[in-house]
Amino acid sequence: MHPKALLDACTELTRLLLRFDHPADSVVSKYFRDQRKQMALGPRERGVLAETGYNVLRQKLRFEHLAKSGTGVRERRLAILGWAAYLDSQAKLQQPQATHGDRGFMKAAMSEMEFKWLADCDAATDEAFLAPHRHNLPPWLAEALEAQLGDDFWPLVDSLQHTAGLDVRVNTLQAKRADVQAELEKNGIAVVPTPFSPWGLRMNAKPNLSKLTLFEKGVIEVQDEGSQLLALLLDAKRGEMVADFCAGAGGKTLALGAAMRNTGRLYAFDTSAHRLEAMKPRLARSGLSNIHPVAIAHERDDRIKRLRGKMDRVLVDAPCTGLGTLRRNPDLKWRQTPEAVAELTVKQAAILASAARLLKPGGRLVYATCSLLPAENEEIAQAFSAAHPNFKPLLVKDLLTDFEVAQADSLCTPDGQYLRLWPHRHGTDGFFAAAWVAA
């Protein structure tokens, strides 16, 4: 593809993303589909386009500040900065993409004036920018995170400027982690075991796994290490009755089913039949037969009420802002608001209270989010404990230690009460989890 055409495409995709009409991943996917007949988009072109757009979302305030000094269409200047950031990240990973992965190819798309402007932007140091240009967060979110983290705020900010790697979970019903690692390496994929999850493997690059036999046969599933630890905390046993109360597309459901060794009965509840439908191909690949997807209207659905007091384990991975996934979904910081957080906390509390009614005495309840905000995490857990004295809080640190998870205390709040994962500290998405046992 000619470099000028590629930059034009980056400019158009940037324009579409900055409208914030839909989630960024769906905008990118739709753009690729719409352009299939108009232009030849191979893997390299798609990589440049997607990462350029995501870099603009990650560093929006910084790039907009730099763009003021240039000329021409604003979205084009932002796209140039996003493309350059992608090339820089590839160089750091020592993964230059042939032809499309060097400044020479990119220079052919720009005028001399634009190339000089980009060089001036490259030369700018952090001292030339105000705090918002450095953290690239909306004010309300920057204030909330800085109040929570103090000096650790800037390391978090730095981690959020970079794309996340790719974690997979090994389906232990079918293979051992070491054997899968060896097989991936035979396919030229550099991979290391995740440091905390006993089921995970991590790769810095993002190879296309869908064509691998390991993927087609359900031996591996894409799942962040933090998400894998949620399934570990629930500790679902063989033959138990278990519910994944907000199952979504089923990543944690599949992990729970494997932990149960394909025995017992595992309900996958969700209010979105579409999301549950997306689970079916994954379920077919996994070889699991103990999972029962159930679409519900709301958390008080009659199908929930009929199971009251019958469950051994219940996982509530609640709907949340998703701010722990900003490395993967940088648009979320621009699409969420304090008002949306307030609405979500009401929903989270209601869902947790309803899910708790499913448990029999002695059953375990785990509440989790992929949010960074205390309002969606500690405050929900503390309010639930105060309102439900028949549920005894469990120390997450002890649960992780029982599973011999490395550095278990470092994964938790200082008192050991809750799981608290951070991208800059643990290399995972941001996750929170609390656990209780029913009296």
Provide a short characterization of the protein structure.
The chain has 439 residues and is of the alpha/beta class. 47% of the residues lie in helices and 14% in strands.
Keyphrases for this structure?
439 residues; alpha/beta; N-utilizing Substance Protein B Homolog, Chain A; Alpha-Beta Plaits; Rossmann fold; eight-stranded mixed sheet; four-stranded antiparallel sheet; 21 helices
Overview of the structural elements:
The chain is of the alpha/beta class. The chain folds into 3 domains: 132 residues, N-utilizing Substance Protein B Homolog, Chain A (Orthogonal Bundle), CATH 1.10.940; 57 residues, 2-Layer Sandwich (Alpha-Beta Plaits); 214 residues, Rossmann fold. 47% of the residues lie in helices and 14% in strands. The chain contains 21 helices and 12 strands. Strands 5, 6, 7, 8, 9, 10, 11 and 12 form an 8-stranded mixed sheet that branches. The radius of gyration is 23 Å and the shape is globular. It starts with a helix and ends with a strand. The mean pLDDT is 94.
